[in-house]
Specification:
The chain is mainly alpha-helical and 59 residues long. Helix content is 54%, strand content 0%.
Amino acid sequence: MLLVCWEGLDLRQAAAVVGCSRPVAAMRLHRVRKKLRHLLADEPPSATTRHRSYGESVI
C-alpha cells in the first residue's frame, strides 16, 4: 500500500519491487485497503480475513 499510495508507483512497478505478479499485487492491495477500512471504522474484520505471517510482504 505504501508503494502505491505514498511512493506513487503503479501496480506493475510495485509488483516488480516486491517480486510478485501484477494480479497478486492487485489482490494484496485490495485486501490491505479492506482491512484498513475495517480498522478505521472500528468494525471487526470478516471471518474470511486471515492474519499474515511474519515476513509476508504487503504492498
